[in-house]
Fold:
Amino acid sequence: MIDGLAALGAGLIGLLVGLVAAFAFQVSEREQHAMPTKPEPELDDGAAEVLAVLRAATVVLRRDLTVVRASAAAHAIGLVHGDRIAPGEVVDLLAQVVNDGEIRDAALELPRGRLGGSTFLLQLRAAPLGLDHLLLLAEDRTESRRVEAVRRDFVVNVSHELKTPVGALSLLAETVEQAADEPETVRRFAARIQTETTRLTRLVQEIIELSRLQVADPLRTPSAVPVDRVVHEAADRARTCAVAKGIDLEVGPDRGAVVWGDHDLLVTAVRNLLDNAVAYSEPGTHIGVGTTVRPGTGLVEIAVVDQGIGIPAAQQSRLFERFYRVDPARSRDTGGTGLGLSIVKHIAADHGGEVVVWSEPGRGSTFTIRLPLVRAGAGAGAGAGAGDDSTAPPAERRTPTVPNPAEGADR
Structure:
């Protein structure tokens, strides 16, 4: 009897323990499901260190194409805006990798800025990174393309342009030799030799400058450049030439605008425009150079206005071609090489901007360099400055301009 009761009690205790254990297991399982899972880290330290030392621009993305990490270079070339990939062509490339998981390569040209036709040439590689991420590598091939273009064009341009002064020097030297007993003739032709030597020297210098612009990228190591300093420096260097020709040179008020770029190159661009203005203006006229800040578009404009002979509309589209001259005879008289405006075009494009022209024969010309604005000073909104109305003739636009005696006129 007692043994039976003991067995019954043991059975009841076992059943109770089993029920408690089962209840505890269910509670534990519910708690595990209710607890949030520990998120997988977006990028471990080792992977981050590897990406940091890569020369290519790098972007790590989730499969929904939101950006997890992007290098400074990726932002600089415009691949990333906020937490998204900006160019649509790159988004399409990444979408294909998401769909099939295959590594893909592509070469794309992306705009350098919002103005002009300057572009980056990027070699892209997109690949899966683990199960949940993508890796995008972008290598800038712009410089290598420039080098190839310079190599291709250099011989053609140089052989075409150098043969004229070299041939002239040869003929003049021969004439001097034959007239050795005529001092007056020797002096006259010696002066011509000096003129042709100066022209040849200027041409070689500008070919070197243009080649350097086509090969090097001035924004690879940019700095903040105050536009007012650029304008004043160009004006100071050109004032002597303007005064010698009896031309009044005016400089507009400071605007406090700042751009990213190379100070010396921007001074060269403004000086070339001013040199053209002086070369193609008559004594007693006015030249102006000044700036206008346009916060609404994020641009600053540097305008050079003259009251010179003007340029026919049919020829304006070719003004910025290398070695193109509107009036070859006048270019010979002024020492023009046909490269100055091409240099201006390259400098503006390399700074993410453009150069445009307004002109009418007999009413003068206005050349305007437009550049992306970093910031505007306190005086930016005061006054109109140069280039307020891009269609108005220069006589109605009180903008300042400056010539550059070191460079030849190009029109």
In short: The chain has eleven helices and 14 strands.
